[in-house]
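Re: weekly structure request thread

Next one in the queue (92 aa):
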Amino acid sequence: METIDDAARPRLAPHVRMAFNTARGEYALLSPETIWAINSTGASIVELCDSRRTVGEIVSELRSRFEYVADDDVRRFVAELVTKHGMEIDHG
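Done, posted below.
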């Protein structure tokens, strides 16, 4: 799995979009061949991954929204999506 540092600028891959299924009450990332079910915390991370914010800035923003945010959990979530080609990273 790729290591994600605080300066990385993540974004969804061009072929991936996030959707909310109102009937099921859950978020999902949709690509032509894959669907990833994610929880509301994952959706909060994804909505901040716009290639402008760094991972460090994303963690700071999440801390302003939630009582507890584990930096490593955010990095792992992003790294897992990068590994699965659901997210891309700009380094710089």
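The beta strands are 8-12, 17-21, 26-30, 35-38, 87-91. The chain has a mean pLDDT of 93.
Next request, please.
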